[in-house]
Amino acid sequence: MPLPLKPGYNFNFARLRRPPHFEMAAAEAYTDFYGLSYIVSGERMVYTPNGTTLLQQGDVNFIPRYVYTRSTYVSEEPYEFILLKFTDAMLSDLLKVIGADAYNELCNESIIHFEKAVQDKIVSILDDMEREWNNYNAYSELVLKGLLYQLIIICLRERTIGGMTIHALEKKHDCLSNAIKYIKVHLRENPSLKETAKGIHVSPSYLSKIFINQLHTSYSDFVLNEKVQCAQKLLVNSKLSMTQIALESGFSSNAYFSDCFKRSRGVSPTQFRKENGNI
Q1: Residues in Cβ contact with 232 at an 8 Å cutoff, skipping those fewer than 6 apart
Q2: Could you tell me if 106 and 166 are in contact, meaning their C-beta atoms sit under 8 angstroms apart?
Q3: For a surface tag, which of 7, 21, 120, 175 has the fewest beta carbons within 10 Å of its beta carbon?
Q4: Could you tell me if 173 and 130 are in contact, meaning their C-beta atoms sit under 8 angstroms apart?
Q5: Phi, psi of 9 (to 5 degrees)
Q6: Residues 91, 94: Cα–Cα separation, whole Å
Q7: Of the given ranges (8-12, 98-102, 172-176, 206-210), which has the lowest mean pLDDT?
Q8: In which band, very low, low, confident or very high, does the pLDDT at 37 lie, cut at 50, 70 and 90?
Q9: Which of 23-37, 44-58, 227-241 has the lowest mean pLDDT?
Q10: What are the residue ranges of helices labelled H in the chain?
């Protein structure tokens, strides 16, 4: 697991290579720092509070503060990725210009795709970052801050070329939007693919393809993540028992709920509630 920031540093650069079948034993906590990952090669399934995401070569993933994230393998290939970690001090000047909402929008997008030409620009910036990091001196943080700003601005400008935000996605894909709304309304009933497809008047096979092609996740993984997110909110904002939360979130049993939540968030529901001040 990548280490947190070094004491006295506001930035960290890591190029990481993992063998086939590598799986994080537990989720990594992003506390008072942000993250940004770029997939150099291979692919990974990433679990965060924002959803379950398949990251492939050339994809960028922005990681907000105060979240747990975990990844696992989805193929027989080794994979390589670059992981940046940085604090508020590295972002403050940029946020004065673009606004916090613009940056949060990047964090809220589960995955950001780019055309090949944009990927090449991103790789060039990351290569410059790596050289500066490997020769770190008194001026490096300033140089790295400038490179980070270039990278973020490219993502803001170019992300709609290879992908689109969830808001735009819902406008252009009524089928997917309707399916998501149906799932949220019927979450307590744990709606199956067949039930949701019937509810929005499409075939199950077509709906399954929509989730894979547009959200890069399976229908079942999407529903599971919605259930975990619902449970997470109830753990923090209610005094319901674990059994009641499992029922309200669409889990068939308390044991299954606890297992799914721990695999997704890295901690048990009880521990999550305790860590978030709702005992």
Answers
A1: 49, 261, 265, 272
A2: no
A3: 7
A4: no
A5: -105, 145
A6: 5
A7: 172-176
A8: very high
A9: 44-58
A10: 88-98, 100-108, 116-134, 140-162, 166-172, 174-185, 193-200, 204-210, 219-237, 242-248, 254-265, 269-275
109: amino acid identity, one letter = E
pLDDT of residue 68: 78
Distance CA 211, CA 218 (A): 6
Structure tokens at 37: 């990952």
Q: How far apart are CA 85 and CA 36, in angstroms?
A: 7
Highest mean pLDDT among 144-148, 156-160, 174-178: 144-148
Determine the residue type at 273.
R
Can you say whether the dihedral through the CA atoms of 121, 123, 124, 130 is positive or negative? positive
**Is residue 150 within 8 Å of residue 125, measured between CB atoms?**
yes
- Report the distance separating Cα 84 and Cα 123, nearest Å: 13
The pLDDT value given to residue 169: 41
Nearest Cα neighbor of 70 from 245, 225, 223 is: 225
Are 245 and 71 a contacting pair, CB within 8 Å? no
- Residue 3's φ and ψ, nearest 5 degrees, are -80, 155
163: CB partners within 8 A, 6+ apart = 109, 111, 112, 113, 114
